[in-house]
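User: Second chain of the day. Same drill as before.
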Amino acid sequence: MTATIPADARLTFGGILRSEWIKLFSLRSTVWCYVILVALTIGLTALLAGLSGVGMPDDGTGTLAPESVQSTWLQMATVGVNIAQLVIAVLGAMVITGEYGTGMIRSTFAAVPGRLAALVGKIVVFGAVTFVISFLALVASALLAIPLLGANGFEVDVADPAVWLGLVGAAGFVTLIGLMALGIGAIIRNTAGAIAAALGLLLVLPTVLQIFGAVTQLEWLMDSAAFLPSSAGSALTSYPTEPFEYPADVFIPLTLEPLEALLVLLAWVAVPLIAGAALLKRRDS
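Assistant: Same format as last time:
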């Protein structure tokens, strides 16, 4: 007996989310990227925490300032974020370009003729999974660093909200980088091209700005580096400390406050996603 499909049958958004979940975890590349992300996040923390105590600042009395201990703990817990962002950028680009490469995107758009709902489904599923995995890996790193720091005589305040807020910021940063790469992938639609563009933005552009800023000594050029994704991510994951007073004649490059950094990152995510959504509606699959 052949099953009949009701004429008014339609795919719900819940169904779209389930299909995107299945597509995300049906690829071995997804599992491997997340495994690498977790391994690097925890492994680099273990390595750095094991070397703790070298060059640690004190409060002038020969004892370690509590603020320095907390700041160092957060730095150790998030040291793997700089590499994790590259891993998640690759995965973010592949989330959508992989479907273009295999031709599965045609089936996706046939099931979701409006197309935008499919893109939103990818954003929700990929963003939620990435944030949860990143945050759990960062929490594991922070907990791992506690006994390693304790073995070197440093006692941390586990209840410090600034540290936990920094961990949330780090997980959010990794997630936003992945979504930015997803938007780039929606624009370029080619895996190699999207990955090259995302990594170029994260790796090459900061280096170019740093070189030109050092050569030209243009203050506005050096200040512009604060608005790059990686710099904004560093501001989002930093421990709040009292600003150091520099001499008036010393130029200090611009640094963003955490809220400002978050807005900058959201802009980096929104622009490629909006452009990708517009092109998704206009171009053939």
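The chain has one domain: 13-50+65-241+248-282.

User: Great, on to the next one.
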